[in-house]
Design goal:
The protein is of the alpha/beta class and about 200 residues long. It is about 40% helix and about 20% strand. It has one domain: Formyl transferase, N-terminal domain (Rossmann fold, 3-Layer(aba) Sandwich), CATH 3.40.50. It binds 5-O-phosphono-beta-D-ribofuranosylamine (GRF).
Length: about 200
């Protein structure tokens, strides 16, 4: 399966997805795109020979920016979009266009702590476990079906920063596995049977 990855920052999850694809994960990264031309992940992708696309959202309407991203994604031939630290809320139109084929990773055990600063909020609440979730993207922010989660134990002395670091290590294991399973589901007899049943109803 062909996948476009959208980033805004360091791109460590993008790198994890990419390296997994190089050692046999069932997908190929055909584009890394960013709304920040200075995102560190872009040069990493380039050095690995992956096509990149960067367009700042500044001065553009959300719908205009999304349309340009969408055009680049389509041109790349991607069948799926993986958001990996993409810090722009997408227009409903863009989300609906990729419904069922767009995934995101969020650093909390959803449905807890949607949105910003999940680690600080988990610490404040006294949670013993934090983690990350890969979910389908819907028009509700961080609200789509959860496809997989990884848990990380909170330790004494943890800060939002130490938690973010440990959760990220877990993210790098989680995202390639969940994306790989998701794009492979078409080969799964149970999944296909479910689809046939749904169509027959
Ligand atoms: C990750 O923690 C991800 O869960 C969140 O943004 C961060 C991106 O980090 N959505 P990176 O750019 O992949 O290193």
């Amino acid at each position: 399966a062909k996948v476009a990855v959208l980033i805004s920052g360091a791109g460590s999850n993008m790198a994890a997805l990419l390296y997994a694809s190089q050692v046999g994960a069932p997908y190929e990264i055909v584009l890394v795109a960013s709304n920040d031309p200075h995102a560190g992940g872009l040069s990493l992708a380039e050095s690995e020979g992956i096509p990149t696309f960067a367009l700042s959202h500044k001065g553009l309407k959300r719908a205009e920016h999304d349309a340009a991203m969408d055009a680049a994604i389509r041109k790349s031939g991607a069948q799926y979009v993986a958001l990996a630290g993409y810090m722009r809320v997408l227009s409903d139109e863009m989300v609906q266009r990729w419904e069922g084929r767009m995934l995101n990773i969020h650093p909390s055990l959803l449905p807890k702590y949607k949105g910003l600063d999940p680690h600080a909020r988990a610490l404040e609440a006294g949670d013993e476990m934090v983690g990350a979730s890969v979910h389908l993207v819907t028009t509700e922010l961080d609200g789509g079906e959860v496809l997989g989660q990884a848990q990380v134990a909170v330790m004494g002395g943890d800060t939002p920063e130490t938690l973010a670091h440990r959760v990220k290590l877990a993210e790098h294991q989680l995202y390639p596995r969940v994306l790989g399973d998701y794009v492979s589901r078409g080969n799964d007899p149970e999944y296909l049977l479910g689809r046939v049943r749904a169509l027959a109803l």
